[in-house]
Design a protein that fits this description.
The C terminus is likely disordered. This protein has a single domain, classed as Jelly Rolls (Sandwich). The protein contains no helices and 10 strands. By secondary structure, it is mainly beta.
């Protein structure tokens, strides 16, 4: 997925999965790149779980590896339950804050090994920078 930042600062786009029953906890890894012209100008990437009632639960996206070229591998822990997974990209400085996602993988093992990365459910979307 590519979010090309030709819009206005604060514009958002979502990528949401179908509703899925996770019969056991899993780790989700994703490779992402956040273009940044200078510090504080880049976009943000957040990850949420949406319940059947579409109540959002913000996840903490921890990075586990960084490559040359600005790509980062992030990881979130998904508990047992029925959810949609939603990625929320938010534009920073127009034309200079593109966001890219690639290689979204669900793993049965605890790659993240962080069971505390789930915040309390919220009725609104609070952006969480991956930096």
């Amino acid at each position: 997925m590519a979010l090309v930042s030709s819009g206005r600062r604060g514009d958002q786009v979502t990528l949401t999965s179908v509703l899925h029953e996770f019969v056991e906890p899993v780790s989700l890894t994703v490779d992402y790149q956040l273009q940044q012209y200078k510090p504080g100008t880049g976009g943000t990437l957040s990850v949420y779980l949406l319940s059947k009632q579409r109540v959002p639960m913000r996840l903490h996206l921890d990075w586990i590896r960084v490559w040359k070229g600005g790509w980062t591998r992030g990881c979130v822990y998904i508990p047992k339950g029925t959810y949609q997974v939603m990625f929320l990209g938010t534009v920073g400085v127009p034309y200079r804050s593109d966001i890219y996602l690639d290689n979204v993988v669900f793993l049965q093992s605890y790659v993240c090994d962080w069971h505390r990365n789930i915040d309390l459910p919220a009725g609104n979307f609070i952006l969480l920078s991956s930096e």
